[in-house]
Design brief:
The chain contains twelve helices and no strands. The chain is mostly helical. 13% of the residues are buried.
């Protein structure tokens, strides 16, 4: 007989995985219905059907939350955890306000539960390696964030210097120019803000070329860190196999 705790909390069992995947499927379906519900010209009959279906999902997710609280080893630990808060906000505001406050979009965040299941499956080693890679480059990542923030500030100050006098409304302050700096360094360029002075155009060209290099840095850092972690992991796996013949020879 499967206990309630084993069903809800034990993701390493067949019953626990079935329960968790069932909840994830329901979350996916509810998110898809939310996407459909956002269509402005939806027929009233369809909107009514979606609203009635939503009440069913709310009941299921409320029951799931209660079960998780009741079966949690530390109830306060789950209630105040990241997943506990997201689980609660995904349905409580909608019920208490009769739909006035809609936090259903948080159900997308609930899909992060997939990683909890993957951690107990064949993807475990891959997740561990990825986590080790991120932890191994945390100092470099902090330096990169600091350098990127500095470049953003310099970019905003520079374009404000060149464009403020001729475009006072668009480039009113260095703070307002940060939006231009972000989209320019990211090489997105929406076209809502652009320079018209020769100095501003030259400065923008330099920033765009710098942005392409800046975007490549984190990708290179992660790739390099993953390569090193994977190489060390494979090396550790080979060590016991290499050591066994030597141990046997020494014993003889």
């Amino acid at each position: 007989m499967i206990s309630l705790t084993e069903l809800v909390q034990r993701h390493d069992t067949k019953a626990g995985r079935v329960f968790e995947w069932s909840i994830i499927v329901l979350i996916v379906v509810s998110v898809l219905l939310l996407i459909v519900d956002s269509i402005p010209d939806l027929p009233q009959s369809m909107r009514l059907y979606l609203r009635n279906t939503e009440y069913i999902f709310l009941g299921i997710f409320a029951l799931e939350y209660i079960l998780r609280v009741l079966t949690a080893p530390r109830k306060s630990g789950y209630i105040f955890s990241f997943f506990g808060i997201v689980d609660l906000l995904a349905f409580v505001p909608f019920i208490l306000t009769m739909g006035t406050i809609d936090m259903r979009i948080l159900r997308v965040v609930r899909l992060l539960r997939i990683f909890r299941i993957m951690k107990l499956s064949s993807y475990d080693n891959a997740l561990v390696r990825f986590g080790d890679a991120l932890m191994g480059m945390k100092e470099e990542f902090v330096i990169f964030l600091f350098a990127s923030s500095l470049v953003l500030l310099i970019s905003a100050a520079g374009i404000w210097h060149f464009e403020h006098e001729v475009q006072p409304e668009e480039f009113s302050s260095i703070i307002s120019c940060l939006w231009w700096a972000i989209i320019t360094l990211a090489t997105v360029g929406y076209g809502d803000l652009y320079p018209i002075t020769p100095g501003g155009k030259i400065f923008t060209s330099i920033i765009v070329m710098s942005g392409m290099g800046i975007l490549a840095v984190p990708a290179g850092m992660v790739t390099s860190a993953l390569f090193e972690v994977t190489k060390k992991s494979k090396h550790r796996k080979r060590l016991p196999h290499k050591g066994r013949p030597m141990l046997k020879e020494a014993a003889s």
